[in-house]
């Protein structure tokens, strides 16, 4: 359906108002981001190569899929979720890093703790951080080929877009900024640094956002049972009492409207990770894990090269 949506927009964009094209591309971009996340968890098929083929094309332009895969697996394996020294997808910074930052960077971090700031500036900030990390890693042949492969894929996508007659700027704004903003809406409140209880929240929402995010709004259950595919996640959530766990921990929200009302212009919390583990050194870790058999009825073995965890590796997923 996602691929068909992109084809339909490219084929019929000249019959649609530009505003509607931008909205459609944003939804498709955010939906594709969700598919990439599912592929990292070895869904929706039992075959790794088939899954990868479904999501490796850089339709969103910004994210290198292989790097996202490594950082996301490290995120699930983090011994201290949300700790910026150990969780590559943390939106927090250590107290030591905060002390080094100037007033401009501190102001930006505070702005990004509001939903408006995250949606408007977040896609640009993430793109800069993602590519800064990529360029720092260019010292190895593997990293260089990843970047070159991604650039080649982006060029291919843009050639197809241009040949359809759709202006490049419309595609870039719709998919990269709009799609990135929708993904950041999902991730905005999904993790909170707290002392007790789960650090993964739950957002109860209707069919549209549940489909757009492939049920990843049930984030506590996703972290508790990461092997469960998106189509089985609601049942697993009910069976495990996910609402109660989230309410006692990172939070249970009655939709993204509630999040907007509470945090549109007010900070979600402090960007500083004031925890005993703050300031932990950068960690290079190899990850190999066998996801236990769950509702899918089949185990999934995940493995990969060393993952370097740094505060700059934040994710929109």
Topology:
Layout: H1 2-12, H2 18-40, H3 48-55, H4 65-77, E1 93-94, H5 95-100, H6 103-111, H7 115-136, H8 141-164, H9 168-187, E2 202-203, H10 207-212, H11 219-224, H12 233-239, H13 242-247, E3 252-253, H14 256-263, E4 272-273, E5 283-291, E6 300-309
Parallel strand pairs: 1-4, 2-3
Antiparallel strand pairs: 5-6
Helix pairs in contact: 1-2, 2-3, 2-9, 7-9
Count of individual domains: 1
Give the helices and strands as they follow along the chain: HHHHEHHHHHEHHHHEHEEE
Briefly note the structural class of the backbone: mainly alpha
- Computed over alpha carbons, the radius of gyration is 19 Å
- Give the neighbour order of strands across the main sheet: 1-4
3D structure, described in words:
By secondary structure, this protein is mainly alpha-helical. The protein has one domain (2-309). The chain is 53% helix and 9% strand. The strands form 3 sheets. A two-stranded parallel ribbon has the order 1-4. A two-stranded parallel ribbon has the order 2-3. A two-stranded antiparallel ribbon has the order 5-6.
